Amino acid sequence: MVEFDENDLVNRDYVNTSTSGDNPNYTAIRDRERVNKKERYEVVYFCDAFVKNYEVPKTKASFQKVERIIRLSQASSIIMRDHLNNFVAQNWDLI
């Protein structure tokens, strides 16, 4: 299966660095539970993982669809990974 990366993102307005105290190479419990939708590496990881783990086409179009869904205004306050996964799944046919 293809792994998607930052070149596959639709939007280019993400921060390319981790926030203070956040290390892109270290995944603590907090990092596994939450998604910072402003950080490029976290968005790529989330979108790639969703495409891999859900029954959706394993395509770049699906990866980008996940990205568009998590940027919907209704998702702006959702930071918990499991809630965000549920939101994307429930809104898959919306976009």
Structure description:
The chain is an all-alpha fold and 95 residues long. It has one domain (6-94). It has helices at residues 29-33, 40-53, 60-70, 81-90. It is globular.
Search tags:
single chain; 95 residues; mainly alpha; 4 helices
By helix and strand content, what is the structural category?
Answer: mainly alpha
Helix count equals 4
Number of beta strands? 0
Distance between the termini: 24 Å
Number of folding domains?
Answer: 1
Helix content: 40-55%
Topology summary:
Layout lengths: L28 H5 L6 H14 L6 H11 L10 H10 L5
Helix pairs in contact: 2-3
Could you give a quick summary of the protein structure above?
This protein is mostly helical and 95 residues long.
